[in-house]
Amino acid sequence: MGTFKIEGGHQLSGEITPQGAKNEALQILCAVLLTEEEVTVNNIPDILDVNKLISLLEDLGVKIRKKGKGSYTFKADDVNLDYLQSDQFKEDGRGLRGSIMLVGPLLARFGKGYIPKPGGDKIGRRRLDTHFEGFIKLGAKFRYNKEELFYGVEAKKLKGTYMLLDEASVTGTANIVMASVLAEGKTTIYNAACEPYLQQLCKMLNRMGTNISGIGSNLLVIEGVDALGGTEHTMLPDMIEIGSWIGLAAMTKSELTVKNVSWDDLGQIPTVFRKLGITIERKGDDIHIPAHKDGYEIQNFLDGSILTVADAPWPGLTPDLLSIILVMATQAKGEVLIHQKMFESRLFFVDKLIDMGAKIILCDPHRATVIGHNFKSNLKGTTMVSPDIRAGISLLIAALSAKGTSTIHNIEQIDRGYEHIDTRLRAIGAKITRV
Ligand SMILES: CC(=O)N[C@H]1[C@@H](OP(=O)(O)OP(=O)(O)OC[C@H]2O[C@@H](n3ccc(=O)[nH]c3=O)[C@H](O)[C@@H]2O)O[C@H](CO)[C@@H](O)[C@@H]1O
Ligand SMILES: C=C(OP(=O)(O)O)C(=O)O
């Protein structure tokens, strides 16, 4: 179990270039299985989850060549399907959440897809019904081995159809889209998720030869084709990482510039931070956050009631930023209710923030009220364990702003989605070491 030691209370300054998007990368890398031709992918983040998926693809027989930093070619012209039944796959496949999206492309191209119950954050129930109900609608037979927690779908040929998803699942939609591109005829998916990750995936699939319309909406229409060709794809910057840098700048009263953020793909994110009182300046495609020397003040709703920040499927606010917004609110002037609607165990980390001196009431597993200190009282350094990726980065931000030294254990949770975070933080003046 890795550990960070952090000396808090230092102002940071400088420029940060965001990594490529983790959740997009997990979709795109699975999509390389849809063609026997070469696919080039750029701006791949060097993070644990993505590296695990690359190694799974390698074990599946995909030929992988590194071209440069974050740039790889993939050629899935000789896929080893026997690997899917191996004990090694049952072990490695559960190592990350994104591996679930291997199933759709494998089912579409080879008529069978298997996966052990995937890992990812322990942030509440993470059901897979949407994925498998979609595959079944396309004509696949489903089986589940309860002892081994091993899922399987098989079909000679998938057939396009209409489906109304039970929820707008991000990885579920990606999986079903990837299955339907090689299905016979037209597939219509209503209540589809439409995060930029999915928009990017659909654009890539169109470049590979399919015809998907409705990209960016919750109604996707996919015209299946017999075979897909190669392409080149470049990942968007990671919007969750961008939000994390904004939170860090505010909490440490630092002036930071986040480079090349792809503003038009950030949706509500800048608006929500502004409601929390953060000054966010657009400079070309960069975000500039000035040092908040006099703090930041949370706005109320128009009728004077307390602001609520809640997650929702895109174009609502992504749930992955709520922990970061929550930690930032602990030093704001004013109050906010954080409502994490999607996951039921993602707010328990507030106990640690309360230990550090933050004023938070955990109302129930989904809601926490934060009463900001307005920098009149510092958080105090402590020892903590990172429970999940976003709680981990939030505790790290708290530690960097706190008085004294903090220790964070289980930092693999942070490394899962943040590229060389300690090195990049040191480059802007943070006192952090990996021990
Ligand atoms: C690898 C990856 O891409 N992971 C992301 C993906 O996970 P993932 O695709 O696993 O998450 P889903 O979109 O399937 O669902 C997330 C949770 O929200 C609930 N739900 C979902 C849709 C809905 O309309 N109502 C609802 O309540 C689900 O029951 C589930 O508990 O999307 C999540 C939701 O943005 C993000 O937190 C994860 O970072
Ligand atoms: C929950 C997350 O990731 P995963 O779905 O991979 O667990 C996240 O990125 O915040």
UniProtKB/TrEMBL annotation:
Its main location: cytoplasm. UDP-N-acetyl-alpha-D-glucosamine binds at R97, D320, M342. Pathway: Cell wall biogenesis; peptidoglycan biosynthesis. The keyword Lipid biosynthesis does not apply. InterPro entries: Enolpyruvate_Tfrase_dom (IPR001986), Enolpyruvate_Tfrase_sf (IPR036968), MurA_subfamily (IPR050068), RNA3'P_cycl/enolpyr_Trfase_a/b (IPR013792), UDP_GlcNAc_COvinyl_MurA (IPR005750). GO terms for molecular function: UDP-N-acetylglucosamine 1-carboxyvinyltransferase activity. The active site is at D121. Phosphoenolpyruvate binds at K22, N23. Keywords: Cell cycle, Cell division, Cell shape, Cell wall biogenesis/degradation, Cytoplasm, Peptidoglycan synthesis, Transferase. It comes from the Bacteria. Its EC number is 2.5.1.7. It is found in: Cytoplasm. Cell wall formation. Adds enolpyruvyl to UDP-N-acetylglucosamine. Belongs to the EPSP synthase family. MurA subfamily. This is UDP-N-acetylglucosamine 1-carboxyvinyltransferase. It comes from Maribacter arenosus.
